[in-house]
Design brief:
Layout: H1 2-28, H2 33-56, H3 62-70, H4 73-87, H5 93-105, H6 112-125, H7 134-138, H8 148-159, H9 165-197, H10 207-217, H11 221-240, E1 248-252, E2 260-265, H12 272-285, E3 296-298, E4 304-306, H13 307-312, E5 316-322, H14 327-343, E6 347-353, H15 358-366, E7 373-376, H16 382-386, E8 394-398, E9 404-407, H17 411-429
Parallel strand pairs: 5-6, 6-7
Antiparallel strand pairs: 1-2, 3-4, 5-8, 8-9
Protein name: Thioredoxin domain-containing protein
Signal peptide: 1-21
Domain Thioredoxin: 286-427
Length: 430
């Protein structure tokens, strides 16, 4: 799961580095010596990552690629340089932004020096509790797994006397997410291991080993339950506070985004209390074994569609989020068409289209690519925001009792899952 994330980060760094070479002169004219030095450190690291990417291309097995990335010493070396850079500039914008880079760069590293630098970066971040850029660093903490240093930092920021209301509430929100997500992560690893054990085709050599190792890195189930309960309690407190705190918005000074400045309040986004309510909604209704939320929408043909009515009719339901022109989304369409034809009235499929222009959704339907129920949600769509959709395609499978059965599964497991659910419901109705 994280192999693609890391590779994308490297490719993005290369793209941005290329763009920076053409556009960097404008900001450099007014840059300070510290800003220039910090950007230079990050640029040097990106060049090293470019060389690493070339070496990784020679490694055919993704699992071995991941191991090579996690053991790369250049990350540890750069993190140490950034820690030393901050030590000479404590309390400054550049000092904080250097710590932000350490947090981002060391997320996946297994090198002890990188881990030590990450721990030190989190320790020092607490000293920036009243700094206007500190939420940019907190936002850089990657979700997934239990990161003790990150959790300790977030807890520390929540109780710092000099911390702003924005920082305290945002730290509480981020901490709650990092406490509730690992249980969900464990579910995904177990699900994929079970699929592979049942004969599913591995996506790459060593896939089962990767999921097994990732699962072993997570705490025991009892601890995961405790962490989730703690996270839910934090979310409830924030949601009930009715806090109208909004996060500031940041503007890139350089093309890479190494340097940032506060631009304005993002008042168009949800308040932190509203975000907490949405997280609670997703935990309560959109995780496997949970009762699906009510969903009533108007289809593009003007008809109404209700999840409750589909369940009342005894149908298994697929709700998927898509975009016109999204290749991974459209790669799922033949499977949806096949299932729609095969099971007819026993299966309901709803496409929630998040195209910015309604006409794009209409075109997708008129082209014949989508032959099942379709609603236009817009972008950012109300339903997508409520359901926490951040990438496409995203899909949920709901059984005829209205229970979330699965989430984001591939085409082959999806067909098998639907067949099992419909066969089971057919047997019960006899």
């Amino acid at each position: 799961m994280r192999i693609a994330t890391i590779a994308l980060q490297i490719l993005l760094a290369l793209f941005v580095s290329s763009a920076s070479a053409q556009n960097e002169e404008a900001w450099q004219k007014s840059a300070t010596a510290d800003q220039l030095e910090l950007v230079s450190i990050v640029q040097a690291y990106q060049r090293q990552q470019s060389e690493l990417l070339q070496r990784l291309r020679e490694i055919k097995e993704p699992l071995e690629q991941l191991k090579a990335m996690r053991s790369d010493v250049t990350t540890a070396e750069t993190a140490s340089v950034l820690i030393a850079f901050e030590a000479k500039r404590p309390g400054t914008d550049c000092g904080l932004l250097a710590l932000r880079q350490v947090v981002m760069l060391t997320t996946q590293s297994n090198v002890e020096e990188a881990k030590s630098a990450r721990k030190e970066a989190f320790r020092r971040l607490i000293d920036y509790a009243n700094h206007p850029l500190v939420t940019s660093a907190i936002s850089s903490i990657e979700a997934g797994g239990i990161d003790p240093e990150a959790i300790a930092c977030l807890r520390g920021l929540m109780i710092q006397p000099q911390a702003t209301p924005e920082l305290k509430d945002f730290s509480q929100l981020q901490l709650s997410i990092r406490l509730t997500e690992p249980k969900f992560e464990a579910y995904f690893h177990r699900r994929r291991i079970a699929e592979l054990d049942s004969g599913a085709q591995p996506k790459f050599v060593g896939e089962k080993q990767l999921h097994t190792e990732r699962l072993a890195e997570l705490p025991a189930d009892e601890l995961l339950q405790q962490y989730e309960a703690q996270g839910i309690e934090l979310l409830k407190r924030l949601a009930q506070s009715e806090s109208n705190v909004y996060l500031p918005r940041f503007r890139r000074i350089d093309d890479m985004g190494t340097l940032l400045e506060v631009e304005a309040r993002e008042t168009a986004s949800d308040s932190l209390a509203e975000q907490a309510k949405r997280q609670l909604f997703q935990l309560a209704h959109l995780r496997p074994t949970k009762s699906a939320p009510e969903l009533e929408v108007e289809l593009i043909d003007g008809k109404s569609w209700s999840l409750a009515e589909q369940i009342e009719a005894g149908r298994v339901v697929i709700v998927h989020f898509s975009l016109k022109g999204c290749r991974p989304c459209e790669a799922m369409y033949p499977t949806f068409r096949k299932l729609h034809t095969q099971y007819g009235d026993r299966l309901a499929i709803l496409a929630v289209m998040n195209d910015s222009d309604r006409n794009k959704t209409v075109d997708a339907v008129e082209s014949g690519k989508i032959t099942w129920s379709v609603m236009w949600d817009g972008r950012p769509g109300k339903v997508a925001r409520q359901w926490g959709v951040t990438h496409f395609p995203t899909a949920w499978v709901i059984d005829r009792n209205g229970t979330i059965v699965d989430y984001n599964i591939g085409t082959v497991p999806l067909e098998e899952k639907i067949a099992t659910l419909i066969d089971a419901s057919t047997e019960r109705s006899r």
